Amino acid sequence: MGEDRNLNVLRVPTAGVPELIETTAALDSGIAALASGTGPVALDTERAQTFRYSSRAYLVQLRRAGTGTMLLDPIAFQDGRTPADLSRLAAAIADAEWILHSASQDLPCLAEIAMVPRNVFDTELAARLLGLPHVSLAALIEEFFDITLLKEHSAADWSRRPLPHPWLVYAALDVELLIELRDKLAAMLVEAGKDEWARQEFAYVVATFAREQPERPDRWRRLNGANRVRTRRGLAVLRELWSARDIIAEDLDRYPNHVLADTVITQIAELVSAEHPEVPTVSEIHRLPAFSRQQHQVFLVDWLAAIRRAGELPEAQLPPLRIRRSPVPEVRNWPRLKPEAAALWSRIRPAVIERAQQLRIPVENLVSPGALKQYCWKPPNQITPEAVNTTLAGLAVREWQRDFIVPILVS
């Protein structure tokens, strides 16, 4: 995109900002209006992940030809902490294609409120398959419509009530041109012969993300700075503090880092070392500059109890220093652990990258690094097209991807 382009700033929706749907009567009217509309439905959600514990949707935006834009507050329809059930709304647009930008981000929180699509069109994924250099929604709107979308409220606390009017303007604008963007990208996919690729990718996204996402094991190990903790007792401190914080944050529905910062947890855990194997004392914790903030003192009793639990654990129950998160070791260790896997990776990885460049798509969209690593680590006994195809299918490599990858692997 050239720097000298004259871009129009889209400040308000063309039809104005609709009233926020937050009553049963308004919801009934909205469902009827959507059902009478035509064509695909543009959707977006707003979350508050840096303010709240949950990643639920605090606003849902919808737009359809013949209906216009709707802004819906799902929190107004939830029962206590039980998410809203908007299955009636989903049923009204079940036969329509749902257009989302980066669908993997929105589908889980839509599924939480019983909104599960049959078919989607992901504008970000379509742009990736087309090899476009910039794939954010704002960049695509600028590229195709010479219009700038204001992003000034993208990091707002969408759990706030009432929602300020400028925020509703911003939210409505996110779906204002999504249908038109979809049409342009769809035409380009057909012209490039990539429409079938997109169809398979969109189906995979729905199957993978339009449901509750499983929790990752040992989430506490992903804490920022956890890799600096060098002792098993220190890791136990980190785990117990993380677990105590997680319980409190979930109970308060507050972003965990606002309850006890990651840096504080890791600094406390780092006090346990080979030279200082005991868990830290109260005075040692208070000497940490990062711990001096008032927010960290509110649940001091809980933090001290967590540290005490870590200190009382017998050696056999301490967490290991390292665990393998993947069934496959790091590639850098392959020459030592499995030289034949390292040789296979060194041979096929450059060929895969070259093929992706020829197809003008990011290499990770041709085949995920994880799938390729798993294949190299444990290839089929017989390197035939049929065996390789079956192995890749078991690794969730889509059919269109296998059409390009299998010939590389059997060559």
Descriptive report:
With 411 residues, the protein is of the alpha/beta class. It has 3 domains: 8-209, Nucleotidyltransferase, domain 5, CATH 3.30.420; 219-317, HRDC domain (DNA polymerase, domain 1), CATH 1.10.150.80; 331-410, DNA polymerase, domain 1. 48% of the residues lie in helices and 9% in strands. The protein contains 19 helices and 8 strands. The strands form 2 sheets. The protein has a 6-stranded mixed beta sheet with strand order 2-5-4-3-6-7, with helices on both faces. Helix 3 (103-112) links the parallel strand 6 (97-100) and strand 7. Helix 15 runs antiparallel to helix 17 (369-377). It starts with 7 loop residues before the first strand and ends with a helix. 31% of the residues are buried. The model has no long low-confidence stretch (mean pLDDT 94).
List the helices and strands and how they pair.
Blueprint: E1 8-10, E2 20-21, H1 24-36, E3 38-46, E4 59-65, E5 68-72, H2 87-92, E6 97-100, H3 103-112, E7 119-122, H4 123-129, H5 137-145, E8 147-149, H6 165-176, H7 178-192, H8 195-209, H9 232-252, H10 256-259, H11 262-270, H12 282-286, H13 300-312, H14 334-337, H15 339-359, H16 363-366, H17 369-377, H18 385-394, H19 399-410
Parallel strand pairs: 1-8, 2-5, 3-6, 6-7
Antiparallel strand pairs: 3-4, 4-5
Which terms summarize this structure?
DNA polymerase, domain 1; 48% helix; 3 domains; Nucleotidyltransferase, domain 5; alpha/beta; 8 strands; 411 residues; two-stranded parallel sheet
